[in-house]
Amino acid sequence: MRKALVLTAVAGSLALVGCKTMDTGNIGSMIDSGSTAMKAMTLSDGDVVALSNESCEAMDAQNKIAPANSKYTQRLNKVIANMPKDVDGKKAVYKVYLTSDVNAWAMANGCIRVYSGLMDLMNDDELRGVIGHEIGHVALGHSKKRMQTAYATSAARQIAANSGNSALSSLSRSQAGELGEKFIHAQFSQSNESEADNYSFDLLTKQKMERKGLVTAFQKLAKLGGGGGNSLMSSHPPSEERAKAMQARLDGNK
């Protein structure tokens, strides 16, 4: 698999050269780009956690976090009372961003962020369903791959490659912020989304919590339409299909 990815990365880089002058400098630059991109895709678990720590810290600095006495924080604490206290061996740290955006995400280091715009839209059962879905992406390894992809296309990766530093070299706040933005706005594959939906359904079942919220949460997202600049809104498969899939499981068809 790694060999296939290497060949794909290099072939893609060389294909870009075809429309330009085939000089040695261009070819070398493109091969180097493909090579460093491949290095990003093979980051270790420790690398991904370290990058998640820095990018999560940068995102927290860029956003307004709801204080402990906020109605949003108090409500979130109630919603997550029976949700996982750790994710893939990392302590789960839940916080609310005060923004009208409708979104939520989780990183491989246990950083879980819920936007107040999502909380305004969803009831408690629906919030648990969405949060369970984001936790699923971490537990199933999707968030690691997402961070690898984000790093592969970030300026931080190119700077590290050019300077000979590793992914663990300390990022500037702006580089970490860019990496966090790329992570948040990247899309998961259709299979990843479906797997995370089912993870959330199974988690809620295990915890004896209401699962209907998964259905109605996707129905609400469907009414808002696609796009929105984040992965939660840019749903693949479409939110309508995901709502039907969760309803089918509730009905015992899956």
If you had to describe this structure to a student in words, what would you say it looks like?
Helices cover 62% and strands 7% of the residues. The chain is mainly α and 254 residues long. The strands form two sheets. The chain has a three-stranded mixed β-sheet with strand order 3-5-4, with helices on both faces. Strands 1-2 form a two-stranded antiparallel ribbon. Strand 1 (86-87) and strand 2 (90-91) form a beta hairpin. The protein is globular, with a radius of gyration of 20 Å.
Strands ordered across the widest β-sheet: 3-5-4
What is the radius of gyration computed over CA atoms, rounded to a whole number of angstroms? 20 Å
Q: Please, what is the average pLDDT?
A: 81
Number of helices: 12
Give the biggest beta sheet: 3 strands, mixed
Strand content: 5-15%
Summarize, please.
The chain is mainly alpha-helical and 254 residues long.
Write the layout of secondary structure elements.
Blueprint: H1 2-17, H2 24-41, H3 45-62, H4 71-79, E1 86-87, E2 90-91, E3 93-97, E4 104-106, E5 111-115, H5 116-121, H6 124-139, H7 142-152, H8 155-163, H9 173-185, H10 190-206, H11 212-224, H12 239-250
Helix pairs in contact: 1-2, 2-7, 3-9, 6-10, 6-11, 7-9, 11-12
